[in-house]
Amino acid sequence: MPDIRSKHCQANLPMSFSLKYIVILLFLAPMALKAQQELMLNQMPDVWRASSLNPAFFPDSVRFVVGLPSYSLDAAFSGDLTYNDIFRKQDGNLVVDLDGAIGKLGPENYIVAEQRIETVNFGLRLPKGFTVMAGHSMRLSGTVDFPKTFAEVYWNGNGPYVGQTMDLGLGSYSFDWHEIMAGGSKTFGTVTVGARAKFIGGNSALQTDPNRNRADVYTDPDYYQLTINSDYAFYSSSVFSSIDTAGLGFALVTDNFRSANIFKNQGWAFDLGVQARVGERLTLSASALDLGGTITWKEQAYEFYSNGNYTYDGVYIPGNDIVNGTDSLDIDGELDTLNDIFQFVRTDNNFKSKLPQRYYVGGQYQVLSYLSVGANFFHQSGELRSLNAVGAQVMWTPLSWLRVGGMYGVTEIIEKNVDTDYRHNIGLQVFFQMAPFQFHLVTDNLVGAFSPRSSSAANLGLGLSLAFR
């Protein structure tokens, strides 16, 4: 039977993720990176960065504020899988090694990642209780579901699974985009209401069709015939241009990782928020974010579709040799390209992505001048998953310019075809200000923030602002 091997493949991971880097990880290692709940940040209404979670938030006694670049990331594997289970160093390079990871997988698994980079924004307090705000940010939302059989065939090849039908059907709902926002708020007595409109410019997307997600491989035990049964479709914009790798068979051709024209992939979303002061000690808040958010993908927008039953005589999938092979490339026969196997057909086809909608409800009670407690509820609904989280916080202000806080939170992740996952986390916030500088660091998952490689989840946000009174 023919022997198909590739040259050694290595992965160098960036400090911040884009969809294209995540896509590389998904196809070079079928696990890479939980929804962006930011419960701690929602309890910091006097921090300018918190206005991204509620347009009714505006720092007290501040007239004008400039938000400098800030960063937040929330990412997770399903179950107990960690970064160190997947990657290892070899000869100074980072390589994929799934020998220990596969045993930790369930029948169905997920990878989720949310990222936001706020480049610059500003807010201005006007007379008669009005405020205005505007700014730009870059965001990513990625969800990938995959069966354990996908990882097994990918790493071990189909040889150990002769006589078994192996499901290779990945599910993906992943995209990244730019946001240009403008909005404001108005205070009526003790109640402030806010609203914000956001122009969305899509950068890249990779989505599978949930109604066409079958991709099975069966190897005959007598003749080693490889049989493919497929009814599988996915959509791509500025990620993959074709599935013809001139011999590699298990790689895809990217669109050279260049940025798309975001004004060709357009959409709009809206945020609403309210904050109410009840008496002198209690503050309540609620917000709904990304309402109606939809991107229509037009630039380099393709549909790839495979539908049929294909049989190949005397061939096998070599597994991890495709990733970490040591032999030179030796191509022979019908397993010449991935397109030869699955018979993908590409057509130009616009498609849409819906932004996951997020909802916050919270309250904060000032126990003493230097001590407050709070509670938050968060819900997110998306195409492949939904998420609920609740947290209880304590915040201490030992100095006029310093505040620290802690949180205990529980998150429920409801993923399609995957058992509901519950996660218990300890959070931390640190905020200090020395006029005009404001700095914040927050995490809903303290362990994952500072040891992400040995944790199955990571959550971190930090940023700097200039606030003028």
Describe this structure in words.
With 469 residues, this protein is mainly β. It has one domain (19-468). It has five helices and 23 strands. It has helices at 19-28, 148-156, 321-324, 338-342, 446-450; strands at residues 64-77, 87-90, 93-96, 108-125, 130-147, 165-167, 171-188, 191-219, 226-237, 240-242, 253-254, 266-278, 282-297, 301-312, 345-348, 351-354, 357-368, 371-381, 385-399, 402-415, 421-434, 437-445, 457-468. The strands form three sheets. The protein has a 14-stranded antiparallel barrel with strand order 1-4-5-7-8-12-13-17-18-19-20-21-22-23. Strands 2-3 form a two-stranded antiparallel sheet. The longest helix is centred in the N-terminal third of the chain and has 10 residues, at 19-28. It is elongated, with a radius of gyration of 24 Å. It starts with 18 loop residues before the first helix and ends with a strand. The model is unreliable at 1-36, 244-258 and 322-337 (pLDDT under 50).
List the helices and strands and how they pair.
Elements: H1 19-28, E1 64-77, E2 87-90, E3 93-96, E4 108-125, E5 130-147, H2 148-156, E6 165-167, E7 171-188, E8 191-219, E9 226-237, E10 240-242, E11 253-254, E12 266-278, E13 282-297, E14 301-312, H3 321-324, H4 338-342, E15 345-348, E16 351-354, E17 357-368, E18 371-381, E19 385-399, E20 402-415, E21 421-434, E22 437-445, H5 446-450, E23 457-468
Antiparallel strand pairs: 1-4, 1-23, 2-3, 4-5, 5-7, 6-8, 7-8, 8-9, 8-12, 9-14, 10-11, 12-13, 13-16, 13-17, 14-15, 17-18, 18-19, 19-20, 20-21, 21-22, 22-23
